[in-house]
């Protein structure tokens, strides 16, 4: 096919595609997804996405050249492990820094809907309040577990009945992020806890957090990366 004819054919196909409503996406489970409602710009730059991570500090400004930057939970953990742990507020500030470089970039924050991570201040606040103990899975009394219930860096040890492990968890003297002293995740030891979605009020809490000022409700954040699933 001659180049001029080929270009004309591509232009016609593009016109048809832009006129028709796009079919819904499909998730791994076959459920229909949805395209973003953002207006099309037809700029390749805006169709790119990256999930970088700089554990030592802020992301390089050059990442603002991507269409979407998804900020991982562990980004900057050498900074936020200093008490009080502040992953959420660092996400918000990181988004503002990238938007200052290029206002058109869209930044996503991170949330986990299976693991309750107490280095997020909103999660820690709920976990520290006994009134919300039903939002989390518990150790079953009388059984032996392969994960410790206590942080023995404290005297007396800091213990909890809430089930947790230490995978991808800040630690002292070493972990996934090295705390400057015994890690301070509030009343409970640092670890990956588990949400108990059988509690209806927990569902309301998670939705409110997603829509709140530290995520989608923030002008500098355009979406969320929701990690893990049951």
Structure annotation, total helices: 5
Low-confidence spans: pLDDT under 50, at least 5 residues? 3-20
Terminal-residue CA separation:
51 Å
Shape: globular
Biggest sheet, spatial arrangement of strands: 1-2-3-9
Largest sheet: 4 strands, parallel
Q: Overall pLDDT, averaged? A: 88
Give the key terms.
230 residues, alpha/beta, four-stranded parallel β-sheet, 9 strands, 24% helix
Could you characterize what this model shows?
By secondary structure, this protein is α/β, with parallel strands linked by helices. 24% of the residues lie in helices and 12% in strands. The chain is built from five helices and nine strands. It has helices spanning 3-19, 77-80, 87-101, 121-128, 200-211; strands spanning 49-50, 68-70, 106-112, 115-116, 150-151, 158-159, 164-165, 192-194, 223-227. The strands form three sheets. A four-stranded parallel beta sheet has the order 1-2-3-9, covered by helices on one side. Strands 4-8-7 form a three-stranded antiparallel beta sheet, with no helix packed on it. It has a two-stranded antiparallel ribbon with strand order 5-6. A hairpin with a 6-residue loop joins strand 5 and strand 6 (158-159). The longest helix is centred in the first third of the chain and has 17 residues, at 3-19. The chain is globular. The relative contact order is 0.14. Residues 3-20 have low confidence and may be disordered.
